[in-house]
Amino acid sequence: EVQLVESGGDLVQPGGSLRLSCAASGFTLNTYTMNWVRQTPGKGLEWVSHISSSSRTIYYADSVKGRFTISRDNAKNSLYLQMNSLRAEDTAVYYCARARILDGHTFDYWGQGTLVTVSS
Amino acid sequence: EIVLTQSPGTLSLSPGERATLSCRASQSVDSYYLAWYQQKPGQAPRLLIYGASSRAPGIPDRFSGSGSGTDFTLTISRLEPEDFAVYYCQQYGRSMYTFGQGTKLEIK
Minimal CB count within 10 Å: which of A41, B5, B6, B56? Predict the structure, then answer.
């Protein structure tokens, strides 16, 4: 069974940093592109970042470019998101999602999310 | 950036009725890169449709997708009680992904 489990969400002050993790199981992580997608409380979905299976290709949404860094450790079956210079508008539930590149870059499995709250 | 606009914002229907949800793109989208998701309260989104019209594994055939260019549609032929949720369209292009703002399908 495919499982994605996020962790690391917390309450952090504006300007602070946080590192999110996503533990993958039930599939071979090193053959899949992975993404982070966030959802603000009561609002819609916003894509955050993409990393290819080999980490060769990385994309970011303009809203996080220069502040967030996506990475992965295939040997540890894990995906990460380092978030620096956090702002109030970064407050959201952060999901890791597996991407099916051969099916139009769709997200076929999602974790349950981890909540990041940026507030003083 | 391609903006996806979904309509209506809220759709009130009864079980057994047909639901038609719209997703309009600000510029042409390759159908191959258009998907639909369902999200229920407290849950992560679930992939329903990819490639504009292909059902994801395990998705009932009452769900269907259609469209091309800038206009896409998700149709639920006969609503079941478990179909009342929020639906999002999503596209990929030019190294980025965007989502529509969602359509809430509620019980009338």
Answer: A41
